[in-house]
Amino acid sequence: MTTPNFLEKLFAQLRSSAARPVIQEIRGESAASATGTELLAQVRAARAYLRRAGIRPGERCALLAPNSIRWAALDLAMMAEGVIVVPLYSRQAPAELAAMMRDCEPRLVFCADAALAQGIESAWPAAPRRVLFDEVFAAAESAESVPDVPAPRDATDLVTIIYTSGTSGEPKGVCLNVANLNHMLGCTTERLDQLMRGATSAAQPDRIFHWTPCNFAAARILLFTALSRPGLLSLSTDLSRLADEIRLAAPHYFINVPTLLERVRRGVEENIAKRGGIAQAIFARASAAWNRGETGGLWLALARRVVFPKIRARFGPNLRALICGSAPLAPETQRFFLMLGIPVLQVYGLTETTAICTMDDPREPVEPAYVGAAVPGIEMKLGENDELLVRGPNVFPGYWNRREETARVMQDGWFHTGDQAEVNARGNWRIIGRLKNLIILNSGHNIAPEPIEEKLSDLLPAAQHIVLVGNGRGYLTALITGAVDEAAACAALDAVNPGLPHYKQVRAFTVLRETFTIENGLLTANGKLRRDAIATRFAAPIVEMYQRKAS
Questions:
Q1: pLDDT tens, residue by residue, 95-105
Q2: pLDDT digits (tens, 9 = 90+) for 359-369
Q3: Which of 217, 212, 222 is closest to 174 using CA atoms?
């Protein structure tokens, strides 16, 4: 008897959850939910549409929309029909979306609304036909003959093409197949079983909050994992109301990016400082004790009784852990949440590794600054220049239509991640930075900018971004965005520089008026810095900064 693949397991779980809500959209102070039966009905309607449209297995269709129940239904429908799903980011610039679609040539582009469809048409008049969600789900009665089981799939069949963020060049389509997802969903399910052991039951299953866009690999893995196990997945519909949505979702866990957790930490510290009084005094003394390495004592005991519970209440009564990925989390932020009694489990991976290589084990104490050990079945080692290499069933078969690029990153069965890393005696990995981000001074010194940028950011909470520059020059300088005054920036440099070797010290800075955004092309779709674009856009201020320092 063959083992069911990830999609067959997911559909079986939905059938077994026929009368229970499995997914919901939070809309203001209420939620619109779908049971297993109702979600499968939407999947059947979408499958019926694909059949009427003549879409065949192995063809590609793009999915352009914010998160929604319909997004999940259409994604599942395409995979069940053997269609290769190309999920796209609804906030990405239309010209960038058009470039991705020219590359993969989808038969249809499914759009949540007319505005998204019109954006594509304006950037690419010859784009494939755009189909609105309303059209797909309009004729549900024609879906009666569609089964509630997916079509058979081979392990090597492609499931999806996910485009990378393109931090330093044209985005590439990462191909993932059935075997990749089979392995990864087995790993994530095992980790969540470990996290939730004893906390939930069939009557009270997992509660998961989901705000990160499902077109990203890690978010998609969470979507599939949540629907493959008993649980209720709550989808955010308004990022400006995340705090309220989290309260309504009352999750046991959800995935985050470092930026959000660091913003929460700073917000808590600022609010307590503004309130003053006894709560502020207790919090300050407890934080000082914790940062000295203490785990007990009067002030921490008082804070755990009086202050910390009110902070944790913002995440609802059920929270077991926060999960964080996409970039290294500042150790200070991870320690802050540990102080509150909220473990932050870090995850590391790339789209090419089916989103995940390492995960913190919830049964073990977390190590701030480390992203956990390799998940079962995955090998990791260091190559030249301490580059992290990965081998295992999670590694993608290649980039879409890019054999040379695939050959460059896949050598002797090992995927070259482009990340610099180190591993400790416990087998936990730490990501130091990206090799392509290395700054090479004219002295020959190679410098990973990320650790220094993180230290400065921690001292400058008002800074939106800090970017070090200095390639081919004699020393480092910094570009800073946000409401940062020069005195604060000088103080931050004075605090950080003494602890660095001379060649890593930042000798000058400039505060920019323009911020870095996805819309102006200075951030990728998932919020990472486009360093080459930033260096080009601000070439004049950079030159002026070095001239000013030289004079």
A1: 889 999 999 99
A2: 999 999 999 99
A3: 217
